[in-house]
Each structure stands twice: as structure tokens, then as C-alpha cells.
């Protein structure tokens, strides 16, 4: 592959990222069509998952697509769903070469798209910028391969790892630039998740604000008994922004009825050690199509996710302050006796946001 091929694929990857948080349960794919040295069409998966990236790019290129090269970030689909297969659309348009970053493990595709293209005489190359594409598609891949969405665990703490004072005061540990970045990261996920304690104590809205975003993630709350404030922000907005409440079998029928009447979707899962099972909750979210979940605490939920090896990425915001031992820790008790059993993450990036620092870490557990 040439340097030009790499540039075109990176262009397609950048386009595909525009769909993150907007296209579930579909993958966020980008496509660039090139003829000679000129880009003649480009597209990305549209809101809700349709039209697909290839269809958008082909519509833009029109008749010029004949004889062109298509750079696609994920294997073109080969099955008929709400629309026809993208592999057949590329063939019908006369595309002569397809360069793809990554195969699609979805059993409905999984090599069939490539096979259709090759059978029609289209030259196919696979694996260009595969590492970047895998990173972008980790949510979709996780849902297909593991049956659950990828999980980003986010927290904002002091330098000594505290998220609140002993009295519970936590606003604001970090500054406005960090908080704005959090809203951008919420927007790039399908769902924003917290535990019941956080919902009761902080009365969060869990919405995207401040960045002019026009699509809200699903708000997800894990609450064993559904004992959440009925006059809080979540209750007031349940009809306006999707709210999914994951609860245990013992939640009262009356609270189930009340929250359902308010507009929330209720999801019952089993308990684990007296709390809502984090693993079962994520499986339920995957079954409903979510591919990327942004978890904002609290410490008990964070501990459950970490103990179950369910965290794929950590976004750790740190402010230049100290609270001391009496403060509230980022993560609840993990019960570790040996350092070798501590969850491990690999550093990906460090960003300075005003007077705060964001470090991004990725799980070392393979997909």
C-alpha cells in the first residue's frame, strides 16, 4: 500500500468517527471514493445507522464511481436489512478496487462482503490502518464478540485520588475545559451510566450540553430497588431524553409502575453480591443495541466493573488539589490482597486541559 492509500484511509477513519454515539447498533463507518488523484465521494454512517457510509459516498460520486477505488473502514455488508448490501452497491456502481481497514465479525457478514466483491472481479485489500480502525470500532466489536458494549470509566479526582470531601462536596473538582471535554466524550458514546447512589446524591441530568450537540445518549442508571428521586432531574426529563433503569428482581411493582409512567424503560437483571450485576447489566445493554457506554461512577459501580474485568478504557481527570484520607475514593473496595491481581491499563495519551490533566488508559485484556 502507498502513502496515498494510507492518507485516504485516514480520511475515511476521520469521517467514520463522526458517527460515534449516533449510529448504534450499527458500526460508525467512513468511506472515501478516489479516482486518479481526486476524491469524488465521501460518506459516513448516518444517524440511527442508515444510510451506510458507502451509500452516502456513492450517491455523491454518481457515475464517476465507475473505475474508482473505495477506501472503507469496515468490511462492506453483504446482507439485506433495512437497505441492500453495500458490497452489491459497490459492484453495481463499477468500483474497481476496495481497500478496507478491518473485517466485520458479524456472522451476517464475516468475509462474505469481501467474497462478493472478489467474485465480481473487484480487487480487494484488507488491513490498512487496522490498529486505528480496531480502536474506533471497539464498541461494535465488543458487542458482536462479547455480547456487551465497550465501557469507558470516567472520573475526576484530586491528585490524591479523591472525588469528594468527607461531607460529599464534589463540585467542581476540575475546571471548565475538563467539564467541556466530558460533554464531548458523552456525545461520542451511546449511553451514559451511573449507579443509584450517584443518581440520588448528585441529581445528575447526564445529558450533553455546552457543545451544541443535537443528539443525546441514553441515560442508564443501575438501582437495585429503583429508589431514585421521583422529583429529580432524571424523572423530570424521562420523556424527553431516553432513560433506562436497570434494577433487581425485588424492586417494588409500585416503583416500576411509577417510573414506567414517567417514561423510563425498565430492565430487570439478577443481583450479584447484593447489588445489580454489572455483567448482566452490560449484557442487557448489548442486547438492546448499545455499543459504547460512558460510566461516570460512583465508586461502588466502578469497583464492580473493574472486578469483573469489564472496563475497556479509563478517562482519569486530575486536578491540582488534595483532600486527604477522609475524602471519598475514586473506586470502592476491590478486596485485593496481592498487587499482581490489580486491574492493569496501558497509557494511551495525556492531555492538558487548562489547569487539569486528562490521562487515557486502555485495558490490556485482549478483545
Automatic annotation (TrEMBL):
Of which family is this protein a member? Answer: In the C-terminal section; belongs to the HTP reductase family.
CMP/dCMP-type deaminase domain: residues covered: 3-117
Its name, as the record gives it, is: Riboflavin biosynthesis protein RibD
Note on how the cofactor is bound: Binds 1 zinc ion.
- Which PROSITE patterns does the entry mention? CYT_DCMP_DEAMINASES_1 (PS00903), CYT_DCMP_DEAMINASES_2 (PS51747)
**For binding Zn(2+), which residues are annotated in this chain's numbering?**
52, 77, 86
> Where do the annotations place NADP(+) binding?
156, 172, 198, 202, 298-304
**Catalysed reaction, written as an equation:** 5-amino-6-(5-phospho-D-ribitylamino)uracil + NADP(+) = 5-amino-6-(5-phospho-D-ribosylamino)uracil + NADPH + H(+); 2,5-diamino-6-hydroxy-4-(5-phosphoribosylamino)-pyrimidine + H2O + H(+) = 5-amino-6-(5-phospho-D-ribosylamino)uracil + NH4(+)
Please list the cofactors this protein needs. Zn(2+)
Q: What is its EC number?
A: 3.5.4.26, 1.1.1.193
Q: Mind listing the GO molecular function terms for this protein?
A: 5-amino-6-(5-phosphoribosylamino)uracil reductase activity; diaminohydroxyphosphoribosylaminopyrimidine deaminase activity; NADP binding; zinc ion binding
Superkingdom of source: Bacteria
Q: Which gene encodes it?
A: ribD
Look up the record and give one Gene Ontology term from the biological process aspect.
Answer: riboflavin biosynthetic process
Q: Which InterPro entries match?
A: APOBEC/CMP_deaminase_Zn-bd, CMP_dCMP_dom, Cytidine_deaminase-like, DHFR-like_dom_sf, Eubact_RibD, RibD_C, RibDG_C, Riboflavin_Biosynth_HTPR
